[in-house]
Design goal:
By secondary structure, the chain is α/β, with parallel strands linked by helices. The protein has a single domain, classed as Rossmann fold. 41% of the residues lie in helices and 19% in strands. It is built from eleven helices and seven strands. Helix 6 links the parallel strand 1 and strand 2.
Amino acid sequence: MIKNILRIIISKSLFWKIRHLIQPNWIKDYDNAEKNISFITNFVKENNLKSVLDFGCASGSTLRKLKRLNISNLVYGVDINKKAAEYCHSSFKSEFKTGFFFSTKLKKDEISKFLNQHNILKFDIVIFDRVLYCLDDEQIFEILDLIGNSSYIFIDDFYKNDQTKNYGYAHRDWSNILNRFSFEIHMNIETIYSKVENANARTMIFKKKVDYLASV
């Protein structure tokens, strides 16, 4: 029961928005954590994806590694925690000259400005790394509307099927949701991270449908 209540609490976007007040060192702790993102970096490298948007970027560690390895030269991060976005902007500014942007909200005008500045029409991949469970359906659909012409979408989150039970984390049928935005499943495997007790955590990659791309 207590575990379910805690899961419900951290599944609310408000928690992440004010997390720095509850855990003052969480951003630096996250930055120093040895999180294995080789799955993401390998996929991005193998598919030559040069522009990346990370929604829920936290300390920016994934985007920083992509730039350091010279895999992706254009990175765009969004985190609703103001301190996290400020930390990312400051740390990237001290290390890289160009090709990055950070914000606390996904905004159409900011996206358009970034894409135009770098002469690209869309992001090659958008990353949602264990973050969408914190949002409601309306927020998710609004975000997908804004990034809907991207080539790939990476999602690690909780997947709903006939056997799924509610143990505090919101589970959704991501295949059905992404299909509404003209994305087809490219990969759907057990999470690349540690298993989550009583939850169906999956790692998924969705690809923009070819017939849609041909029509725009």
